[in-house]
Design goal:
Number of domains: 2
Largest sheet: 7 strands, mixed
Mean pLDDT: 95
Shape: globular
Distance between the termini: 46 Å
Helix content: 25-40%
Strand content: 15-25%
Radius of gyration: 21 Å
Order of helices and strands: EHEHEHEHHEHEHEHEHEEHEEHEHEHEE
Strand order of the largest sheet: 3-2-4-5-7-6-12
CATH architecture of the largest domain: 3-Layer(aba) Sandwich
Structural class: alpha/beta
Number of helices: 13
């Protein structure tokens, strides 16, 4: 398998094509514009490929709904304000149990904010984001290789559970260049019974999200909830880094985890045993795995490029079993590993073996 040097956004596009994506609709917004640019070029080269630059983000997500209903592996991408505009459509995908992949290359906010990398969309992604009782599988890559691997996995998960899946990255990851090896995609396994191809001589198929009877809507909600419980049991992913002998664990994801790994190297050189717990699935959050870690480690420090969102999931997982500190840099500020290492040294009392509470 050949290793190639590519930009992060283009890696997502190439991985999607190799995974069988044949429909893409999107609208330009920095810092993810290389994704639609790449898809516009590559989808012309594959049989059945369709690219549409829509008139808006709202139009793009609803085009994805139609393409998914027709059986195509479908994707859209945007950045923070654009993802906000897609929320009604994402809720409809969940309600209609249609598979699709949504990419959010986060930028500074709230509002229009700026085009610098940020992690302020964690709540929006992991709590559904739109209206109603639903969830979206959320994958948080931290490298070019994971951009490739998790994009392919996202299409498989979307088909397996007939649900939207989100890749949650940021502007730094989309713009960086790293070597990557594209794995061999799995053959698509998606039953014909879920594809709208016209009734013909058979029974009509109906896909709907409008269910006017409250009792029928309640049952549909519980059906979705049972599916989400299965996903939560089976699909959590995480990485442990230098955690075997750690006396303090940093918890971070995505670009924040890359910064944390650099900080850990410096902290260990100074004699402080620090490790990393990195959630890869942001929903479902690896709650049990983090809780198990808290049985033997007393100090955790959550680092996010936000004012603190994932920290709430960390608290819910640990349930008071350990001390939890927090350090955040919101609004598009990207700290260096040296800065984070200095924060850890200030917050952690090596003599007492405790970390400042958040």
């Amino acid at each position: 398998m050949n290793k190639v040097l590519m930009q992060g956004n283009k890696i997502i596009g190439e991985a999607a094509i190799r995974a069988g994506c044949r429909f893409y609709a999107g609208y330009p917004i920095t810092p993810q514009n290389e994704i639609p640019e790449y898809m516009a070029e590559r989808l012309r080269e594959v049989e059945g490929g369709v690219f549409i630059q829509s008139e808006s983000e709202v139009a793009a997500i609803h085009m994805v709904i139609g393409a998914s209903a027709a059986g195509a592996r479908s994707m859209t991408s945007s950045s923070s304000p654009g993802i906000s505009l897609k929320q009604e459509g994402i809720s409809s995908l969940a309600a209609c149990e249609l598979p699709a992949v949504i990419v959010n290359m986060m930028r500074g906010g709230p509002g229009l904010g700026n085009i610098s990398p940020s992690q302020g969309d964690y709540f929006q992604a992991t709590r559904g984001g739109g209206h109603g009782d639903y969830r979206v599988i959320v994958l948080g890559p931290d490298s070019a290789q994971e951009l490739a691997d998790l994009t392919m996995d996202a299409f498989d998960l979307a088909d397996r559970y007939r649900t939207p899946v989100m890749i949650l990255a940021d502007g730094m990851m989309g713009q960086m260049m790293e070597p990557v090896i594209f794995k061999t995609p799995k053959p698509r396994a998606y039953p014909e019974s879920f594809i709208m191809k016209g009734a013909g001589a058979g029974k009509s198929k109906i896909i709907r999200g409008l269910i006017l009877d409250p009792l029928d809507m309640e049952e549909h909600n519980w059906t979705l909830d049972r599916k989400y419980q299965v996903i939560a049991r089976k699909e959590t992913r995480h990485e442990l880094y230098k955690a075997d002998d750690a006396e303090l664990i940093l918890v971070a994801y995505g670009t924040g985890a890359r910064i944390a790994k650099g900080a850990i190297k410096r902290l260990r050189e100074s004699g402080l045993r620090v490790g990393l717990f990195r959630p890869i699935t942001l929903w479902p959050f690896p709650t049990n795995e983090l809780r198990d870690l808290a049985k033997k480690i007393e100090n955790f420090l959550v680092f996010e490029m936000s004012t603190g969102q994932m920290v709430e999931d960390v608290r819910l997982a640990i349930q008071g079993r350990a001390r939890i500190g927090f350090h955040g840099r919101p609004g598009g500020v990207v700290p260096t590993p040296v800065e984070l290492a200095n924060v850890v040294m200030r917050k952690y009392d090596r003599k007492e073996g405790i970390i400042d509470h958040y």
